[in-house]
Amino acid sequence: MGEIGSGAWRTRANARGKWLLCIYGFPTNVSALQFEWAWQHPRESEAVRQAAATFKSFSGVTNKIKLAYTMLTLPAWQSLNITINYFSTKYTIILLVAQACRSR
Asked: Is residue 11 part of a domain?
């Protein structure tokens, strides 16, 4: 009881997991959803496809973090004032390297 019968299955499946980061500051809900879709489907997204070709794999937390930071450097999102909050220090080294790449 209390669960929505339909909806985002990826979100629902991971609802019991721990949050690593939160990406926010998108100007509209639509732009946030577009980013989310491109992050989940990097090979299909026109905005991400070329950058995604450099990745060997998209599985695992490390690659998902790297992909998010790579996406934030692309023309579709680089001019937005996006903020990233971290909820875990487990992947601190990866996060620091990804931040350095984004600031270049």
From this structure: no
